[in-house]
Amino acid sequence: MNTFTAEVSRIQDLTHDVRALELRVLEPASITFKAGQFVSFEVPKEGQPRLVTRPYSIASSPEQRDRILLVLNLVQGGPGSSYLFSLREGDQTSFKGPAGAFYLRDDETKDLLFVATGTGIAPIRSMILAQLQRAPARPVTLFWGLRSQRDLYWQDDLDALSAAHPRFTAVTTLSRPEPGWRGVHGRVTTLVEGRIASVSDLAVYLCGGSGMIKDVTATLHAKGLCPIYREKYYDE
Ligand SMILES: Cc1cc2nc3c(=O)[nH]c(=O)nc-3n(C[C@H](O)[C@H](O)[C@H](O)COP(=O)(O)OP(=O)(O)OC[C@H]3O[C@@H](n4cnc5c(N)ncnc54)[C@H](O)[C@@H]3O)c2cc1C
User: Based on the number of CB atoms within 10 Å of its own CB, is 109 exposed (0-12), middle (13-18) or buried (19 or more)?
Assistant: First the structure.
C-alpha cells in the first residue's frame, strides 16, 4: 500500500449533503487499483490525541490512473467527512491505498447484480464502468436506494450509460419519496425480491449500511446459491 499526495482538482456538490471530490495524484503520479477498492485518510478527531482513519471507496474507473473520484455524504460532526468537506479546489491532501477485498472479480461468465444504498454507489460505479468496458455483452443490473427526491444524483449519467449499453439496467428507488414521485418507490430489498427470478448465473455486489446488506443477503439466500460480495459502510 502506498501513501499518495494529491491535489483536489474538482469539487461538485451533487445534493444538499453529498459531494464528489476529484483528486489528482501528485506523488506517486499514477494510481493502480481494482474496481471497488478504497483509499484511507488519517484525520484529526476532536478530543482525541491520535489521528483516526476513514476509508472512502474510489468511484472512478480503474482505467483512469492520474486521478480518482470520491463521493461522500456529510455526517454532522464526523471527523472524516468534515475533513473532506473542508477541502477546497487546489488544496493538497494525502491518503493511503488502494486496499480492500471488495473488488470486481475476474469471472466474466456471470451476470452481475449490484445493490447500493446512498453513497454505497461509489465502488459500484467503478465496478459498473469496468464491467461494461470488459464484458459489454453480459447483463448488468443496478438497484440503487436513496431516500427522497432531494437525494437523487447521477440519474442522467445512468440513463446515458443504459442508452449506450443495452444490457445495462439501472433502477433507482426512493424509500421516502415526497408527493409527486413517479418513479420506483420502496426498499432495494423489495426490488431484489420481486425482480430477480433466479440467482443461478448471478454474482452479486452489495454496498451500503448493515441493514440493507443483511436483508438483501437473506433475500438472495432464499432464492438459491450465488457468490455475494459485500462492503459495509456502517452499522445501522
Ligand atoms: C471500506 C469503506 C469504504 C467507505 N467508502 C465510503 C464512501 O465512498 N463514501 C462515503 O460517504 N462513506 C464511505 N465510507 C464511510 C466512511 O469511511 C466514514 O465512516 C463516513 O464518512 C463517516 O465518517 P465520519 O468520521 O465523518 O463520521 P463518524 O463520526 O465516524 O460517524 C459515523 C456515523 O455516521 C453515520 N453515517 C451516515 N452516513 C454514513 C456513511 N456514508 N458512512 C458511514 N457512516 C455514516 C453512521 O451512523 C455512523 O455510525 C466507507 C466505509 C468503509 C468501511
Answer: exposed
